[in-house]
Amino acid sequence: MRLAEHRYRTVSGIRGPLLFLEDVLSARLGELVRITDPNGQSVEGEVLKINGSQVLVQVFGDTHGLDVGRTEVAFADTVKQAPLGQGCLGRVFDGSFRPRDDLPMFVPERWAPLTGRPINPVARAHPQEFIETGLSSLDVLNTLVRGQKLPVFSCAGLPAREITEQLLRQSRLPGEGEFVLVFVAIGLTHYDYHFYQQTLEGMQSRFVAFINLADDPVVERLLAPRLGLAVAEDLAFEEGMDVLVIMSDMTNYCDALREIATAREDLPGRRGYPGYMYSDLAALYERAGRIHDRPGSVTMLPVLTMPEDDITHPIPDLTGYITEGQIVLSRELHQKGVYPPVDILPSLSRLMQHGIGEGRTRGDHRELANRLYRGYAKGRDLRRLEAVVGRDGMLAEDREMLDFADGFEREFVHQGDDRRGIGESLDVAIGLLERFREVLP
Amino acid sequence: MNGKVKGISGATVQVTLPDLQIGDRVFVGEQRLTGEVVRLDGPVATVQVFEENRGLGVHEPVVSAGGPLTVQLGPGLLGGIFDGLQRPLPGLRSTGGDFIAAGSTRLALDMERSFELKPTVRPGSDVKAWQQVGTVTEGHIDHPLFAAVPGVLSEISHGPWTLDRELGRMQDGQWLQGWHSWPVRAARPYRRKLSLSRPLVTGQRCIDLLFPLLKGGVAIIPGGFGTGKTVLEQTIAKFADVDVVVYVGCGERGNEMAGLLDEFSQLQDPRTDRPLSERTIIVANTSNMPVAARESSIFTAVTMAEYYRDLGLDVLFLADSLSRWAEALREISSALEEMPGEDGYPTYLNSRLAGFIERAGVVETMSGAEGSLSMILSVSPPGGDFSEPVTQACLRVSGALLMLDTSLAHRRHYPAINWTQSYSLYSSEAIRHFALEHARWPELRKQCRSLLQREESLREVAEVVGMEGLQESDRLVMRTAEKIRLDFLCQNSFSDDAFADPETTLTRIERLIDEHVELTARLDEGVPLSEILKEAADATG
Ligand SMILES: Nc1ncnc2c1ncn2[C@@H]1O[C@H](COP(=O)(O)OP(=O)(O)O)[C@@H](O)[C@H]1O
Ligand SMILES: [Mg+2]
User: Fold this and answer.
1) Would the CB atoms of B89 and A291 count as touching at under 8 Å?
2) Cβ separation of A278 and B324 shorter than 8 Å?
3) What is the pLDDT of residues B80-110, one digit of tens each?
């Protein structure tokens, strides 16, 4: 603890979101600072680097109006903390935790650092309670469980927004429980924001939103998810709630990370994204989970757009390496009119094994899922053959498999706006498989 | 000696502290965060901090530990779960709560756990260094205890004994301890390396038949995300025929570690009927823990693995994933502003990796026993592109490649081992061994491979002329190959089929190949394929 507050007017340079300070007596890594420009406007920032008495500060927000000489920087002697407590429920904030809904700030019950601390692996309870999303392609083949992080990989122009909104509205926990939603918008367009706003209104007070719009400061794109997760962790592990975190669009997050990294002259990695992007994303995604002997959970559904529809692009690639599976949307299915256009083959829920079967979903779930995969994978393989030799050059049973793949997409994956309970989804699967019993025993 | 923090940039901290050596452990700041000296410039030392250091301030105190980063070695490590600095995670939880706090210290070994000590030498005997002086029982193994120094023994403990008590005493007054510390970066000594000869049975049909491994060998498993690296590593950790398994989750998911812990405490070792956790040591450095500890975690783990090798045991070391280790090395190197090599990795990546992998092998231990350390390492190439530096560096120093294939995984063909591109340089030696018990092993393996190869080329033909355009004998090959893929190569880790011993592996391939030979003979007699297949289907019911 320092006895006196430290204030300096020793800014020696400003570059992008970075501020260089000289002659600083004492500073901490990550220390919160308040920067006040000559007109009395102020923004926050945090200490990035210290070299003796030189300090590098990252500014959260707009640097317009800051100058060398008159700008004042005050050091807070603490790292940036998020205000916490049930008062945040039903509220909408920006990427710096300022109310966006014209209401006064709530009175915090607690404060905690934004970055959180890693959950001790031995304290983690392995996620295994089934969450019913109402979408057959998820519930039967890519089952989501409480405490999982399962991203949606979308392509530009696909209805990721509609699917996310549907997941928000209709996901159900086993038993009585209801989700509390933490919605983090990152670089969202106003148009998309209005779309989500209606859903939020429909959730009564069971949500907290952090909205960083496309024209808001880039640094806040990095803050918004951290604020959202600090709140989610608190609601889950202190208040015992089941929290569902939706973060959209993580591609904007990664682009902001690249932009800031470039300003900081960090060594660029693949496609210009910094080499630490894996660790950075992991620090967010790993905050999902459940803890032994505590109620509450954090389940995450991040949404990202694959640049150029390329799943090997660093953003989806690193995400897939961290998350517990992925839901991949397909342009081809979308063009065929399938909704939701979930491509089953590259999609995966890694935690499905423990979330299905007797007592969780239904006894026949595993076996049905295996048969569906097998049939659809084979049908998709055969489509390539069909493209070359034509349907007539194929064996009768192979033609059957092609029909199965079509039926699978049209009847099972496609469901329009309907919500299907798990029982209903499994019954659709049974009906379909029954018709192709000859080729899919 | 006391010093102070001078500069901080992420986990890299500049300190002023005299008389340091590269590799020394230091305690940084009021929280006493563990760090390692990585660079010396005159009076200023650069320290890599292994713990979360947000909030660390300049001018905070720094003290030297007076030596390098070490791990504690002794009886009681089995069943343990440690972080990258060998702090026991259950202990951290009981004192620090569910979230990991920086600056916690806990000893790896339980100094108060009671063992039944049986001396193997009498007081008055002349003992050499590394000579066994006693035994304790640790889980399923007899854990020998060695004399660290030579001399004439004057006393030796027996009966109930704990690590904090002396093991014995020499006539010159020196006393013997049952445990010791060892620098993590230094390989443990052995008398000499022996050649590899005994197979490492993994219980995975695809590996044991097509790409068999040897004890003391090194295999790598590269694969894009979701191809099954983790499941394969964990399945092998359960079933491999070794005495001790050391598993490092290096920069991977916390939930996976939780799943592993759950399973290992419930499952039994099929060979000893004791809980699997009793033969396993887990090192968990999840992806959200500091990168420097991620880098050190594999050294912490491999040092413990060597310790059990030195007891004359067969040890299997599994790391998931080595890419995360290499990336940690890259992050550290870039923070030190070192000259980057390919894809930003430091130019010493290859030599560092080679040095680490050389710790595998079969050795004659210092006490004259034979011990082995095998390694199976997963690699996570960005974008699933195997030409990247880490995969390539690993390929050069390993003896077997089990390449996981995204398209197989998408079809739910698990383990998704690509059978045309994978290889094992240990095959001939391993097959010779298998053949001693199963004479048909080499022949069946050959037939299996050839059928799979023929399928590959026939598939290309079929893509032009269609299946209808293939000859009947070729269609039979396609059918058998499909059966081999589905009934033999596929092995679901979440079913009773997860583990196959060599006998059942052999019978299963034997059945498939013999059937193929039979059906081919019928075809040669002029019976149409459709009829033959119908007969075969009726026969199996
Ligand atoms: N041998 C196997 N048997 C059954 N399922 C498997 C097997 N290997 C992988 N899987 C499935 O694939 C998923 C991804 O596997 P995982 O090992 O986590 O991939 P990676 O570590 O390569 O990203 C698992 O969650 C599981 O559903
Ligand atoms: Mg994995």
Assistant:
1) no
2) yes
3) 999 999 999 999 999 989 999 888 788 899 9
Dump the DSSP string for A382-406.
Answer: HHHHHHHH-GGGS-HHHHHHHHHHH
Determine the distance in angstroms separating the CA of A204 from the nearest CA of chain B, rounded to an integer. Answer: 32
Do residues A380 and A312 share a domain?
A: no
Question: Do A49 and A24 reside in the same domain of the chain?
Answer: yes
Is the pLDDT at A121 greater than 70, yes or no?
yes
Residue range of the domain that includes A405: 365-435
Measured distance CA(A372)–CA(A377) in Å, rounded: 8
Within a domain: residue A441?
no
Domain B191-426 homologous superfamily, CATH: P-loop containing nucleotide triphosphate hydrolases (3.40.50.300)
**Contact criterion met (CB < 8 Å) for A320 and B467:** no
Q: What is the ipTM of this complex?
A: 0.92
The tens digit of pLDDT for each residue in B9-24 reads 999 999 999 989 999 9
Collect all residues of chain B within an 8 Å Cβ-Cβ radius of residue A276. Answer: 291, 331
Ligand minimally distant from the alpha carbon of residue B221 = 1
Q: What is the dihedral of CA B530, B531, B535, B540, to 10 degrees?
A: 0
Query: Which class is B114-183 in CATH?
Result: mainly beta
Structural tokens at position B427: 């095959």
Which residue from B minimizes the CA distance to A317? B383
B438-539, which class in CATH? mainly alpha
What pLDDT is recorded for position A269?
86
Mutate to test the pocket of ligand 1, among B220, B324, B414, B488 (most ligand atoms within 8 A of CB): B414
In a domain, A440, yes or no: no
Q: Are residues A6 and A47 in the same domain?
A: yes
* Number of folded domains that form chain A: 3
> Residue A12 falls within a domain, yes or no?
yes
Residues 356-415 of B with CB under 8 A from A: 380, 382-385, 410-412
The verdict on B92 touching A (C-beta cutoff 8 Å) is: yes
CATH number of the domain at A64, please: 2.40.10.170
Q: In what order do the strands lie in the sheet with B114-119?
A: B141-146, B132-138, B114-119, B159-162
Number of Cβ within a 10 Å radius of residue A417: 7
Last residue of a domain, one of A354, A380, A404: A354
A325-352 pLDDT per residue, tens: 999 999 999 999 999 999 999 999 999 9
Out of A321, A354, A387, a domain closes at A354
Report B:247-266 residues touching A (Cβ under 8 A): 249, 251, 253-255, 257-259, 261-262
- 């190869």: which residue's tokens? B453
> Which distant-in-sequence residues (6+ apart) come within 8 Å of B97 by Cβ?
A120, A123
Q: Is residue A91 part of a domain?
A: yes
From the DSSP assignment, how many helices (H) and strands (E) are in chain B?
A: 14, 28
* Same structural domain, A371 and A273: no
Q: Is the minimum CB–CB distance between B100 and chain A shorter than 8 Å? A: yes
3-state secondary structure of A242: strand
Give the pLDDT mean for A178-200: 90
CA-CA distance, B103 to B108, in Å (whole number)?
15
Q: Which residues line ligand 1 (CB under 6 A)?
A: A 348, 350, 353; B 223, 225-231, 414-415, 492-494
Task: Count Cβ neighbours within 10 Å for each residue of A37-46 and write b for 16 or more, e otherwise.
Answer: beeeebbbbb
Q: Could you read off the pLDDT of B220-260 as tens digits, one per residue?
A: 999 999 999 999 999 999 999 999 999 999 999 999 998 89
Q: Which of B33, B47, B54, B324 to mutate to test the interface with A (most CBs of A within 10 A)?
A: B54
Domain boundaries, chain B: 2-68, 114-183, 191-426, 438-539
**Nearest ligand, CA of residue A324?**
1
| Closest residue CA from atom 25 of ligand 1 | A350
Judge contact between B69 and B185, C-beta under 8 A: yes
What is B2-68's CATH topology?
Elongation Factor Tu (Ef-tu); domain 3 (2.40.30)
